[in-house]
Each structure stands twice: as structure tokens, then as C-alpha cells.
Amino acid sequence: MTEFAPQIVVAGLVAVFLIAFCKGAFGGGLAVVGIPVLALVMDPVDAAVVLAPLLPLMDIATLKVFPPRTWSIPDVTWVAGGVFSGMIAGALLFAGLPRDVTGALIGAAILIFALRYLIVRSQPGPPLGVSPPRGFFWGTLGGFATFLANAGQPPVAIYLMRRQLTKTTYAGTMSAIFMIANITRLPLLAGLAFARPHLLLYSAALVPVIPVGAYLGKLLHDRLDRERLFSFVYLMLVIAGAKLLGSSLGLIP
Predict the structure, then answer these.
(1) CB neighbourhood size of 206 (10 A)
(2) Which has more confidence, 82 or 26?
(3) What pLDDT shows up at residue 1?
(4) What whole-number distance in Å separates Cα of residue 11 and Cα of residue 143?
(5) How do residues 133-190 score in pLDDT, each as one tens digit?
(6) Is the Cβ–Cβ distance between 37 and 234 less than 8 Å?
(7) Of 137, 178, 198, 203, which is least packed with CB atoms within 10 Å of its CB?
């Protein structure tokens, strides 16, 4: 498709607003909530190409509401290293394997984890200190999920929720991790964008909604206490896990 389709712009505005809003409210790594909207009107690969250059711009906008003083630097270091390693390993090792299988397994694990919290409301246990092995492990799974389906936030959230950070430190740390991830993954999508240059016109048309979504998301973040905010995070995990599982099984687009 080379013509400029209005329906793609409309769906794109909704998708980008949702992603930017979630980033402003809960931190980074939530592109999975917007991609299905855009995929309703265009090929999912094209949707990923349209959003790829916008995600770092969203991270920059989010950086203004979650500056470095809100980050847990040790967590950013180890988890972001894992995410990067997971993306590279995914590209090298999983390119020839059925993505539906690995996607279904990751989606099912996320659903079980999140639903257990929402239904049982069990305490997560004592706060977990900075754990390089655990941070790197969950970051690596997040990198795999990012490579598979732009769903890197749920595995990383599993680790960061155990850290029991303040709501702002949690969101700031998540934002920092996926700002690094989104910048480093741009070269992986550069070849696709080069073959589809007209898609970048859609990307440019969607830029203005980014600061609006991030700002409104931060307003929600400021108005929710820690428990309610994290309940929303777990709800987002359920949605993300269901989307990843359903897409992998061919039940939803």
C-alpha cells in the first residue's frame, strides 16, 4: 500500500495515545497495548515499523516526567543488559523457530502470574534486594518477548514488582530500561523501514499525540496510590499476556 490511508492515521493516533498514556502512567515497555489497534487496519509487521521510530520519542517525552532521579540505577543496569541480550539472542537463536510456541508459553506464564495476584491478592513476599542474576534473567525474558511481540514489559515487571519500589521509582526504572531497549532495537527494524519508506509518513503524522498521552498518563500516575497503581499494572499484565497467548494460538489478530 502506497496511498495515504486516513483509517491508518486514525487507528495510529489511538494506538500511539494508548502507548504514550501507559508509559506516562506505568512506565515503559507497553507497546503491546497499542499495536493490536494499529494491526486492525494494516499488516502487523507494517504496524511495528510505523511505531518503531515513535517509541524512542515516547521515551524522551516520558523522560521529562520520570527523570533519572526516579530511576533505580542498579536495576536499570542489570535488567537493561538482560533485555538487550534477550533481543540479540532472540534474533540469532529464535529466528528459525516457531514464534507461536515461544509466544504462547510466555503469554501463559504472564497470565498465570498476574491472575494469581488479582484473584488471590497474596502478598508478594518480603522486598527483594537488587539481584543481578534475577534482574538479568527477567530482563532476558523481556528481551525475548520484545523480539517476539513487543511485549517486553510483563517479564520485567515480574522482577521489579518483587523489588517493591515506590510507584514513581518503579515507573521511572521501567521507562529507563525500555528507552534503552527501544533505541538499541532500531537497527533491527531499519531494514524493514528501508523497504517500506512510505510507512514513515504515518510515523510523522502520529508524533503530535505523544506528549498529550504522556502528560495525561502522568496525571493518572500522580492521582493513584501505590496499591491501586500496581493493581492497574497487574491488570495490564493480564491484557498483555492474553494478547500474546491469543495471538500465538491464532485466536486474535
Answers:
(1) 25
(2) 82
(3) 45
(4) 27
(5) 999 999 998 888 777 666 677 788 889 888 888 889 988 999 899 888 888 877 766 6
(6) no
(7) 198
Q: Give DSSP secondary structure letters for the chain.
A: --S--HHHHHHHHHHHHHHHHHHHHH-S--GGGTHHHHHTTS-HHHHHHHHTTHHHHHHHHHHHHS-GGGS-HHHHHHHHHHHHHHHHHHHHHSTTS-HHHHHHHHHHHHHHHHHHHHHH-----SPPPP-HHHHHHHHHHHHHHHHHHS--HHHHHHHHHHHT--HHHHHHHHHHHHHHHHHHTHHHHHHHHHH-TTHHHHHHHHTTHHHHHHHHHHHHHHHS-HHHHHHHHHHHHHHHHHHHHHHHTTS--
Yes or no: say if 144 and 106 are a contact pair by the CB < 8 Å rule.
Answer: yes
Burial of 115 (0-12, 13-18, 19+ CB in 10 A): middle
Q: Are 50 and 203 in contact (CB under 8 A)?
A: yes
Rounded to 5°, the CA angle 234-102-111 comes to 20
Residue 1: which of 54, 53, 41 has the closest Cα? 41
* pTM (2 d.p.): 0.74
